[in-house]
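TL;DR need structure tokens for one chain.
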Amino acid sequence: MKNLKQILQFNKLLVFLGIFIFIYILFFTKIIKYSSKYDINEKLVTGIITSMKLDGNKLTINLKAKENIIANYYIQTEEEKNNIFNKVHLGSKVYLRGSFSGPLDNTVPNTFNYKRYLYNKKIYYIFDISEYKIIGSNNLIYKLKDNLFKKIYNSENSDYYLAFILGDKALLSSDIYNAYQKNGISHLLAISGMHINMLVLLISKIIKSEKKEFVVTSSFLLLYLFLTGITASIMRAILFYILKKINKLKNLRYSNMHILILSAYIILFIDPFMIYDLGFIYSFVVCFGIIYYNNYIKGNYFIKLLKLSIITFLFSLPVTALVNFEINLLSILINIIFVPWVSLFLYPFTLISFIIPFLNPILSFFITITNDLNIFFGKFSLLINIPKMPIIFVALFYLILLTKKKKNIYFLPLIVVICKLLPLLDFNYYVYYLDVGQGDSSILLSPHNKETIMIDTGGKVEYKMDDWKKKKKTYHLSDNTIKFLKSKGITSFSYMIITHGDADHAKESLNIIENINVKNVVLNSGNTNYLEKEIISSKINITKKYNLKYFNIVNLNNDMYDNENDNSIVNYITFLGYKFLFMGDASIKVEENLLEKYKITNVDFLKIGHHGSKYSTSENFINTLKPIYSVISVGRNNKYGHPHEEVLENLKNSKILRTDLKGTIGIKINRNKIKINYTLN
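>> reply
TL;DR here they are.
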């Protein structure tokens, strides 16, 4: 009875603490507004290097100064790169000269917000280093971390060593890491309870006394927590182990659920911003699900593994859907294959190989098998798109899981189906001018997503680069576009219109085609360049005709010119009585020809030609069209000086909307009104 009373009292205490933590988080993360201790115009910074990453010719360091700062240094020569770690050490005091810049909010809706991510880590500025000088050495613990980091970095299989030992996935190639994410097994790369339990098991084999083992293990784990950068998943796993061990040694008889909740409270009390950390959310949600359904995880090893995989999948589903807007149904089966392989073999063998380096060739063989299997399964993913879930549906999903009633479980697919159907109930038209930097990309959506059109894809011009400058972490500019589309429930395009083959308009075509079902592609009438040939080779239907009900599209530019810009498709699109004109990169010469051929006036939205170049958008053209809104798709601080002052002067009687200032420009249209939103205000 005494123990029962103690547990009941503890339950009340947890509820009280939960209310306190909620208010505590609300106060310190929402009510209090934080700002930098630095002036953005300052040029000098002094601090301690707490972590660093080298990728290609870019060295990124985390600096502990007046506040935490991320600083980037671009290495000038291959020789400097080879010697950089002989000069720069973790824990060293460093003097930096350079300039501050503020991170941006996400400029494409429903994508990763880097500024908010940094704010939650109390980082307000990024510092671009022009010159650095080491002015102090590191202490003993930092020296240990530095030596460990350098040894890993210079080792064969450094990518997996860094991931499994220090919990840093920076050296994994983008293809491999993306495959892990696609297969729903990226959690195997994050150090968590599985890895901590393995380390604890190794120590327990050496030290037989339970109390001595607890002291030694706890001390080692706290040191390890520092070495790995105090990430949420490791913090949760270590704190859970320590509290669980105290619970056992003191015979407190608290459940694992009590200990998990108490662990969360302690972490959030230390850092309330952890509530927004994706690693924290995944770690606690999945661990909660496993403990909550622990009595159901019975049977032989493979049956247990299947049940565990299903529970993990269900509890992580809403989080994954809110982050990626899709889930992989095959991840349940893929986890059954990869979890025992990685946890029981690859991870421990990686640790052993690091200690005994001559085993590296064998480890390389096993890593190759792992990577090949990972990429193989990625090709057969059964991806289900889940548009952005309303919070009420997320809450309902978890509420059903908490009932533990088998008959209620069948409502979970229904919630997913409803979320998929919601965009189809939308009767509005949408036009998006995406912020793709110095490039063009626009999207038009009809009511109920019946007709979906993309005009250009954006893209960066790539220049030849020495191998030592090339980064392992690569990304496609259109990855944000794809994520945005999936958040809106868009998994196919009726038409992709490529106005012309320049990289800033067409470079991302293949990545879009690989991830979104493109039914038809429209190309211009000019000569076919290498990008357009790649599109044609993808065997997608190439057409000049439109079969549309909601949109009326006419190409106004069918003449042949001697350059790709002037051969741009000029799209004149009308619906609900509204007029939209997309000029591609057409010059003043094309504009004059259009004025001779067509009588177009009172355009509602004019997408300005050639990013606001002085060679487009003549005064005569604008005075004739009389656009209400003029949209300029242009990169921030671009080297071309776009948009040109003369163009801005010509547009003074219309409302100018620029993607470099407004981010993505979204227009919601129905028969009654127009509403314009921007990602940057």
